[in-house]
Design a protein that fits this description.
By secondary structure, the protein is of the alpha/beta class. Among the domains are: 171-235, Oligo-1,6-glucosidase, Domain 2 (Oligo-1,6-glucosidase, domain 2, Alpha-Beta Complex), CATH 3.90.400.10; 530-599, Immunoglobulin-like. The chain is built from 20 helices and 25 strands. The strands form seven sheets. An eight-stranded parallel barrel has the order 1-2-5-11-12-13-14-17. Helix 13 links the parallel strand 12 (303-306) and strand 13. Helix 1 packs antiparallel against helix 2, helix 1 (17-31) packs antiparallel against helix 12 and helix 11 crosses helix 12 (282-298). The model is unreliable at 1-11 (pLDDT under 50). Residues 122-123, 125, 162, 229, 265-266, 307, 373-374 line the site of alpha-D-glucopyranose. Alpha-D-glucopyranose is lined by residues 122-123, 125, 162, 229, 265-266, 307, 373-374.
């Protein structure tokens, strides 16, 4: 992709002076004396992108700008999946949109679909060309068609932008390997072994078994290159202004193809600093603020999603420190706590994490989820609980209790995270486990994430209670990477049966009900943050403050539980999920029962 510097378009006075001031400030903070030159180049890129923005996308920009609170709406359900595993290719995906709409899905988040390196690519997270679609999945024209089809259905496309690293085969890396100093400066290269050792002292391995260390020696480079993840994923050097501009160019290019949001993959790792673990550095947040400000000028409806599976204290700044940054961030603290609560039949940790999550700013929304394509990282709760708690949960989900999960690799000092589909983790299909209770656990978790403030995320197959895919062990290309356990092929036969009211229909119907119920909260005037109400050890209660009274009650135990509600919930209410009237007085919840209490009327 060429850089906008070559364009003849004159730097236009910014259409959005306040965003431009933020942009200038963040670039100055990041690049010091180099900032004015960079800003001039960024301005040209923005002017060109703004000029090229297709009319339907400008209309979307205008619509979203006239409704600044749209991000806080309930029921903006996201569905996440690998394109090949879900539908073969992009055309297949287009063919399955009715199914997704039937689920109440409004946003698609396909996992990386840009052209990846050949062979191992960490599920597409090693991009060779950000300007092309993975050939096996389709081409850019089909992607644009998908985006347009989604807009016509009032849906949106969230795309992964692997912004922390490129594949070793990306053109920049190829040129760096050929010795071009301009492109060598795109990556973090170290030529002295003792320097590698010094850095490593403060770094934590993400994949200590399958990709130990954070540097890889490359004979072509005659240097070690920083590789946080796999050796073929080369970390970019964001202290180089050219890298910032290249990535911005990529965002602008894809935004004008109709992408409505970007998942910033591995966002915590963008800035490296000696003497630290090089995660969540202040400059990282400044980079994201700068991206946001730039998009505000050239493609304002496009949102950013932070993929930061870190302690909540480090996630919150991704919404912005001095100005807005991401509109969405994974609510991994609450997600992990929900699993912990199921294991312990005690909701204390969920109460704590909900309290912390409520600190999000008004312009941001949580992406609430149960499972995704990655492992479940217990270490992200380390600041909130004891090491014993983490160990207990990790062991429980390593096939203990009702669970049929498996442990994943972890760096020394941490506890193993967990792999497995949600259905397996709740015990669906596990011999000896009560299957009615197991299904209730899955429904409970999905019901809670639909009731929280923010956007609910469905991980492909969970709506059908699809189980683990142990077949990955027979495939040499995947066998050594445990996360493939929960990346099965979509079971369309099961989907057809569930849609026809047969096997699988129970969970599918429940998830569809949640989707409708969450969307109905808007019209019912239910809004605001989820604030925990301490009811009893086994029953989670949270209210939504900011509109009509609403209380979500969730029994996290295998026993019936009775709770007493205080005002305003001591009045007769109605369960928004079942339509059942709830009399005042003590309320008994069946095992794993979920109630969305709201006022009658
Ligand atoms: C993110 C992705 C994960 C990938 C890693 C490296 O954490 O979710 O699947 O392995 O980034 O790109």
């Amino acid at each position: 992709m060429t850089i906008a510097a070559e364009l003849k378009v004159a730097a236009s006075p910014s259409s959005n002076p306040s965003a431009h001031r933020v942009l200038e400030d963040r670039l100055t903070r990041l690049y010091g004396v180099g900032a004015p030159k960079l800003l001039a180049r960024v301005d040209r890129a923005l002017a060109q992108a703004a000029q090229a923005r297709p009319e339907p996308l400008r209309a979307l920009d205008a619509a979203r700008q006239s409704d600044p609170h749209w991000i806080s709406r309930s029921g903006e359900t996201v569905y996440t999946f690998y394109v090949d595993r879900f539908a073969g290719d992009l055309q297949g995906l287009i063919d399955h949109l009715d199914y997704l709409q039937g689920l109440g899905v409004r946003w698609l988040h396909p996992l990386p679909l840009l052209k990846a390196r050949e062979g191992e690519s960490d599920g597409g997270f090693a991009v060779q060309d950000y300007g092309a679609v993975e050939p096996a999945l389709g081409d850019m024209a089909t992607l644009e068609r998908l985006a347009a089809e989604l807009r016509a259905r009032d849906m949106g496309l969230l795309l992964d932008v692997v912004c922390n690293h490129t594949a070793r085969e990306h053109d920049w890396a190829v040129k760096a390997r050929a010795g071009d100093p301009h492109f060598r400066a795109y990556y973090r290269l170290v030529t002295d072994a003792s320097e590698v050792t010094r850095w490593e002292e403060d770094l934590v391995d993400v994949f200590p078994d399958t990709a130990p260390g954070n540097f890889t020696y490359d004979a072509d480079l005659k240097a070690w290159v920083w590789t946080t993840f796999y050796p073929f994923q080369w970390d970019l050097d964001y202290s180089n202004p050219d890298v910032f501009l290249e990535m911005l160019d990529i965002l602008l290019h894809l935004a004008n193809k109709g992408v409505q949001g970007f998942r910033l993959d591995s966002a915590p790792f963008l800035w490296k600093r000696a003497g630290t673990n090089s995660r969540n550095q202040p400059e990282t947040y400044a980079i994201v603020e700068a991206f946001r400000a730039a998009l505000e000028i050239a493609a304002p409806s496009v949102l950013l999603l932070a993929e930061a599976i870190e302690s909540l204290d480090d996630v919150l700044p991704f919404f912005g420190v001095s100005s807005a940054a991401c509109s969405l961030a994974y609510n991994n603290g609450v997600m992990t706590a929900l699993w912990a609560a199921l294991a312990d039949q005690d909701v204390g940790i969920v109460n704590r994490m909900l309290g912390a999550a409520a600190q999000r700013p008004d312009h941001g929304a949580w992406l609430n989820y149960v499972r995704c394509h990655d492992d479940l990282i217990w270490n992200a709760l380390a600041q909130y609980v004891s090491a014993d708690d983490l160990q207990r949960w990790s062991r429980f989900y390593d096939g203990g209790g009702f669970s049929d999960g498996r442990r994943f690799q972890t760096a020394p000092g941490g506890v193993p995270s967990t792999n497995g589909m949600a259905a397996a983790l709740v015990g669906i299909g596990k011999p000896g486990v009560d299957q009615t209770l197991a299904r209730s656990r899955l429904s409970l978790l999905y019901g809670v994430i639909h009731a929280l403030d923010g956007w609910p995320l469905i991980y492909m197959g969970d709506e059908l209670a699809m189980g683990n895919d142990v077949a990955f062990l027979d495939d040499p290309a995947r066998a050594k990477e445990g996360r493939w356990l929960h990346r099965p092929d979509m079971d369309w036969a099961l989907a057809a049966s569930a849609e026809a009211g047969g096997t699988g229909s129970e969970v599918l119907d429940t998830i569809r009900l949640y989707g409708r119920a969450a969307q109905a909260l808007n019209a019912a005037g239910v809004a605001g943050r989820a604030i925990p109400i301490h009811l009893s050890a086994g029953v989670l209660g949270f209210e939504r403050r900011g509109g009509q009274p609403f209380l979500c009650l969730a029994n996290f135990t295998e026993e019936a539980q009775t709770v007493t509600l205080l005002a305003p919930y001591d009045a007769p209410g109605r369960d928004r999920l079942t339509g059942r009237d709830i009399p005042s007085g003590p309320l008994t919840l069946a095992p794993y029962e979920l109630i969305w209490w709201s006022v009658v009327g």
